[in-house]
């Protein structure tokens, strides 16, 4: 077997580290160039001490020359940078995977409002579970990895909207671990501030993942869906727990809701609909490319309530990216991806 | 000055411990009997090692005889037990404070659905910030302390409903620290399970605090309010962060919303409306009898979004109880209660 | 390839869960019977929700009949129970692996003092890194898995004692995550008690792992070694960080110390001597069968100071057990075992 | 009563915030100027959101002019800066309190080795529990607040050395919460790195608090004491748990050891010798100016083992500082200082 060779741009960050961790377990992908900006020249071990297998590898500059010649290039860069690097790489058969936001939003106005700067357009969206998306990814050479929150919310609600079971007026409140904010040196991300405390941020429709959630759910629903989204920072390193709720359509029963979710998810290798009465915990998915999901009908309030847990770095970023790459390379979708969490 | 003497029933639990901690700082209340059930006969230090001033005090049985003769009796007992103990104490001028659920719900049907067993009726509700409630508490001899979640949600939304600014279709998602679940020995409350993980529980309209939230908000709104409530367990010992959202009434502006909250809260000693753009963290209120609140208008989704942080054991239980007792005893409302948190 | 079939007794506990997690990634071992005591009859998913691949498997009773017919049997049982089960299994070619304490201590007096009850004798000790031990394990049919603390301390100090670089008067202080205490429902293990707090326990020579550390280090040193051991409980689910110190022998230099450790560890697949100046963190080894080690000479105090990090459930228990089983089955020692941690 | 007026230099940091929190509860001290360097000009609420009572106070520049005219000036500044500011303040009757390291070490060589730069000399050492120290502080106008680790270690071992019960060859391993490292924006202090992980740092005699511990214990012992000190960072915001051990002098009995500690500590208002068999947890002292201490004789290893818990920000810094100031101002030593922790 000939291993396919992959490069990681942004290897010193959290998403880059998770890509490396997962790729080291992948039987058909091998790690080539590891690149970064300010960390170039230092060994990876100085930034990712949990990866002793790569400790001595020297990080290179993120340039088109260094990234050239790989079968797959993962771009784990701040938004606005992936598009520039991708442009430098030019047309090629290389699978280029943008783990950032640059190629997610189809609507230039939404891009301008939430990100600003030039709109790079869209690439095939790396969420195989979305109806029809798996086939698109099988031939994709460019992949836009979904945001971590949109991954969780879309998986939690697409069966409801695909089945016409919910009204398009969604409320989402989601807690994330601090790695979702990256390795940025900000006072509010210091351990002393985070431990023992849950905090809200980006409230009121201003979080950048909002239009991406709306784009996904609107496509499934066939009508415009609005999402009122409130993110929270929780005292844990990894994990997202999202509570996603929308008014139930008239006449919906609990049994019909359950059945719709069972049917929509029964063949999904990475999404588990939990037994009735069991609710998700992020620990169920720690370090795994999985989602743990539960749904119920709140008959008192007339709402569909879906709760989902993922690991923001794995299924929410790096694992989801590799899952899409597996499809693009014609490999089995599950290849090399952990399906069991690390717990307790 | 003659100190008034208080008893704590349930002194070995988390609510009882917090009552003791706060009462030790109170200049006009002194601690008399400390009682419990299975812990009776052991020193308080074996259960509350953070309270060295009381370490040698022996816990007594929770009986009417032991509790008699105090000016104030706090009942920090499992639901269903306070009403029985209160009945044994009989008619008297003693201020009896039920920190449990027995005397909160006015609707016997809601009691039967969510708690079961005999309905004990209602006592004056210990949330001085509710319009009109402060005066009621000044003459109360019986006080029903609100649940921790209803305290947070009611404080977060009463200005909106009092001002007619929101539709009565509320969605609440709230994260709590584990002390909210008490000292019960359950596997899901073990440190190994809780640390590094956020989990959902009691989803879909089944949490017992739901009807209490609806009762409070309906009274303020003047129409029936429904609440779709999802609680989460977060990896911290203390604190509640609640995101509370409802559709905005047509024509509401962000400025009008802000002004309504400023007016409603400007004289409240324990509720801080944060500066615009600052969002609550539970660490702001750690160990303090305070609430930190922010509100915004999500114009994209057309919703009022209020986020509030409290310490579930302090403002959410023991501190709120003492605040009401201060009123009932004719003392200054703030007396002896911490208004600054312990952070970082 | 024919998979070898393994049973796990004690599958509902933390050690049993970690064995299952690791075995699911092992290419030549497949999971057969999963057994327990009080949990028998329930699905594994009710106890190990992070293992969706096994969620529907029903836990059986721990009996000789159920365990019979496997190539490997792991006993992850409370001390005192493994010996009884092993006796029932009788003589056979099955590899029986005691993850408990029953077969670790050679000295009946030490067993009597620290554990009590009948002394079961010793089995080959499952720490391949100990000089000479790897060869013993290649032919073993019975394996005594070391305790988690003794694993860490022995790995940290054996190069010093093998090289005659330290006096036999050891002081160890080690912090463990709460999973080291198992799933027992004790108040001091509740999340509310553990989070935000480090505590000491078993101080003063009374911890059961003390004689095991002394047994290992004495064997390497060739003289009796005493260990003054203080364990601490830290607010994390997994991990041990052990600081191990002993007086330096006269004339020892920092360079000689470093060289001795480099030589002793250079071929070890799972033990990393970190670059000079880098000190271990338990996150480096989270979920991995690895140890991260650093050593220095405190010239001011004249002491060798070695600090080591392991995951108590992986290298400290389940991973170490599988490492030894790989040897016993003639498989590559590293087969199926993760060498990269899950971080951040 | 006329309040005495205090200034805090370094008010935006963790030590400065804790000083402010405690001073707000002090009945005879009121807060005057709050100063800082880069934070000058911003409101305190932007840096200490847990202190709503001071939220609107504007931070001033740290200059002699601003600090002049207060009865007490607390300097919570990085080492090297306090001496310069103190020099600018000149001779005066103001009580100047250095919460940094500048005035702790008597030995210029130790200063040069561990800190470097000009040696400022010593001020009266602010640890009232040290034999003879309380009287010195009653007339002091300058106070050097001990380091947080030296506070814990000195309290834990001074009874042993004062009684001649231990040999002068000390080993200390101590875990600290992350606030001990201050608010510096370093990658290893990010929440994502800290949570779920214990790490070692400053191992091998290089931590700056080492000579201070040796200075204190040598003074008590009357002979030079060496300390082999290993600090660890634990996943909590506050707290130090220190295990302190030294060889027992020949013939020492457990009873004699216990008695010596009881006698040494029986009149101390802030140090609790726990009941036999109970071991300290940092949660016992959370936010309180207390120490929780236990001691035992490890007869197997022939060592005295003392374990102590303090809050590094309270008894370890700000609370200890106010305790000394109370003495210097002729106030009751305990005035305004919390003696009960915030737990769970």
From TrEMBL, chains A, B, C, D:
<dbReference type="InterPro" id="IPR000534">
    <property type="entry name" value="Semialdehyde_DH_NAD-bd"/>
</dbReference>
<keyword id="KW-0055">Arginine biosynthesis</keyword>
<comment type="similarity">
    <text>Belongs to the NAGSA dehydrogenase family. Type 1 subfamily.</text>
</comment>
<dbReference type="InterPro" id="IPR050085">
    <property type="entry name" value="AGPR"/>
</dbReference>
<dbReference type="GO" id="GO:0003942">
    <property type="term" value="F:N-acetyl-gamma-glutamyl-phosphate reductase activity"/>
</dbReference>
<dbReference type="Pfam" id="PF22698">
    <property type="entry name" value="Semialdhyde_dhC_1"/>
</dbReference>
<dbReference type="InterPro" id="IPR036291">
    <property type="entry name" value="NAD(P)-bd_dom_sf"/>
</dbReference>
<keyword id="KW-0963">Cytoplasm</keyword>
<keyword id="KW-0028">Amino-acid biosynthesis</keyword>
<dbReference type="InterPro" id="IPR000706">
    <property type="entry name" value="AGPR_type-1"/>
</dbReference>
<comment type="pathway">
    <text>Amino-acid biosynthesis; L-arginine biosynthesis; N(2)-acetyl-L-ornithine from L-glutamate: step 3/4.</text>
</comment>
<keyword id="KW-0560">Oxidoreductase</keyword>
<dbReference type="Pfam" id="PF01118">
    <property type="entry name" value="Semialdhyde_dh"/>
</dbReference>
<protein>
    <recommendedName>
        <fullName>N-acetyl-gamma-glutamyl-phosphate reductase</fullName>
        <ecNumber>1.2.1.38</ecNumber>
    </recommendedName>
</protein>
<feature type="domain" description="Semialdehyde dehydrogenase NAD-binding">
    <location>
        <begin position="5"/>
        <end position="138"/>
    </location>
</feature>
<dbReference type="InterPro" id="IPR058924">
    <property type="entry name" value="AGPR_dimerisation_dom"/>
</dbReference>
<keyword id="KW-0521">NADP</keyword>
<comment type="function">
    <text>Catalyzes the NADPH-dependent reduction of N-acetyl-5-glutamyl phosphate to yield N-acetyl-L-glutamate 5-semialdehyde.</text>
</comment>
<feature type="active site">
    <location>
        <position position="148"/>
    </location>
</feature>
<dbReference type="InterPro" id="IPR023013">
    <property type="entry name" value="AGPR_AS"/>
</dbReference>
